[in-house]
Amino acid sequence: MKRQANFEVLRVVAMAMIVTLHFLQRGGILLPLYEEINIVNTTGWLIKCFCIVAANCYVLIAGYFLVDAEWKCKKLLTLVSQIIFYSILIPVVCILLGIGNVRQWSIYEWITAVLPLQMDHYWFATAYVLMFVLSPVLAAGVKQLSKKQLEWVIGILLVYFCVFKSLSPILLATDRYGYDYPWFICLFLIAAYIRLYGNKENGLQIGKVKLFTSAKASAGLYVVSALAIFAVSLVLGMITARIGKFDYYMNMVFSYNHILTLLASLSFFYAFMYWEAKENKVVRFVSKIAPYTFGVYLIHENVAIRDLWTGWFLVEKVKDSLLFVPYMILVIACLFVACMAIDYIRACIFKKVFK
């Protein structure tokens, strides 16, 4: 299926957002709002509110195209091989270069490297692969259902995954915060519905309310949703600082399956879907590098180095200052260049091997 520039740009932006979230968390920028409310910490949390849509959007892109795509075992094999390649190679390289504590790894940790999907080395990759395996079944099922039936299925899943957890002040036993393949399946069905029925002419209608009717309206709703996430977390953070009762609920607003996060994700996705990317050098360049974004995730999130790279970039030097914002942009750019270069080489090797 022909790639569309607007979605390729969204893929790159989403991965940049994912790296941003990891920078904020592992760089020590974010402190609990009930412990510290200052300009630096508040700015960090505000950025997180705008970036929390990234993982959902990445899955929505996949579902949007997979519902009409020909399922190929070769693509699955390439995807799994890519995951295993980095999962094993990076710890070996760390041993050769004396990086980190890989030499002291237990058998369990090495099994995690050798069996990354079964051991949940990369939670996102595990959920994504399982969704991909099931995608032809899901796509066939979607096309057998009427529009109304599909709406009922998605509605029931959203009540189960989103509504109850968004309102509950306690942790639900079955809630995984959206860090699992059942939530990715739900996103797949939503993306399939958008592909089939929620197009540019109709937007997305919920009851009598029509949402995402234009790029401008979608972008505006994304901003409002992100600010709502920030407002809820900030208010509950201040309440928790006083009486210590809402720390759980304050964190739940950042779950991938929280209703506000889902609304922000759909808004962001629709804004790019409506965007008609004009052919120019920048768009062409971003479209070319988009296939290597998954490599960025697999490299910087490898268990051997995920807690080390912020130290390599000396993030602690700027974590208590607003200088962390421009420095974060610089670090993310460096990570993208390095990881994409590595993944490009990996892709060339794989191309020859699979031939």
Summarize the structure.
The chain is an all-alpha fold.
Please give a structural write-up.
The chain has 355 residues and is an all-alpha fold. Helices cover 68% and strands 2% of the residues. It has helices at residues 5-26, 39-51, 54-66, 73-97, 107-114, 123-144, 147-167, 181-196, 215-243, 247-252, 259-274, 281-289, 293-300, 309-312, 324-354; strands at residues 204-206, 209-211. The protein has a two-stranded antiparallel sheet. β1 and β2 form a beta hairpin. The longest helix has 31 residues, at 324-354. The protein is globular. The two termini are 20 Å apart.
Provide the descriptors you would attach to this structure in a database record.
single chain, 355 residues, mainly alpha, two-stranded antiparallel sheet, 15 helices
Strand order of the largest sheet: 1-2
Instruction: Assign an overall shape.
Output: globular
Low-confidence stretches: none
Number of strands: 2
Instruction: Report the average pLDDT across residues.
Output: 92
Strand content: under 5%
User: Fraction of residues in helices?
Assistant: 55-70%
In this structure, how is the largest beta sheet organized? 2 strands, antiparallel
How far apart are the first and last residues' alpha carbons, in Å? Answer: 20 Å
Indicate the radius of gyration in whole angstroms: 21 Å
Counting DSSP H or I runs of 4 or more residues, the number of helices is 15
Task: Label the structural class.
Answer: mainly alpha
Q: Please state the oligomeric state of the protein chains shown.
A: single chain
Name the helix and strand elements from N-terminus to C-terminus, one letter apiece: HHHHHHHHEEHHHHHHH
